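#onboarding

Welcome to the new folks! Below is a worked example of what a typical request in this channel looks like: someone posts a single protein sequence, and someone else replies with the predicted structure as tokens. Don't worry about understanding the tokens yet, we'll cover that in week two.

Example request:
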Amino acid sequence: MKYPARKTYQDKDIAQEYESKRFTSYLGRRGDRYERKTFQELVSDVDHPKMCLDIPCGTGRFSSELLSHGFEVVGADISREMIRQAEVKHGKHSNVMGFVICEIENLPFKDWSFDLVSCVRLMGHLPPSVKEHAIREIARVTKNAAIITFYNQKSVMSLLRRFARFTRRISLSWFPETEREQIHSIEKNGLKVKKILPRFRFFKETFFVLASKQCDGPSNSGGENASERN
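Example response:
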């Protein structure tokens, strides 16, 4: 299925300027610190992950956080240009197992391939039907846990976005959800919500959700490298 975000991040200039345009202003730096701190808090709640999938890895922001814990990381993204930026930053790191160009709704990995799947800053770009497939695929390839972000429909920022779209007649591909909708999407597609951050929901646009696999998986959580599906 086609949706605007599939095309936007294929642009070389957007990929090269992604971090400098988003995270160098005062508000951008604050947002970056908040996201990294929240992500780290949830990672610390996961039982001894070894092999992690970061999708979409983008320029490698959250791959950095996983690598800082000593985990092995596979980066995946639909954008070749974003992966090129991630390779510049992390390509020579001994714990980077490789980068893969793929769609999240059709992951080229075997079931139970990863101890942890990280999916940050994506779900808000996906139409509901694609989002369902994406969560199902995350549940399929994880042995243990997933960290997924969603955009909060009832946050101050979301309300401002909707006002701007109405007053300026802007058409954006943006799919925020209520907390109830997020939990429903996750739990009907093979995962179980364990923790949601931040605690004060109204002031933050981004929900970070820690979820676990609903069914029991292999006992050797982290022995083998992730391999592509045959």
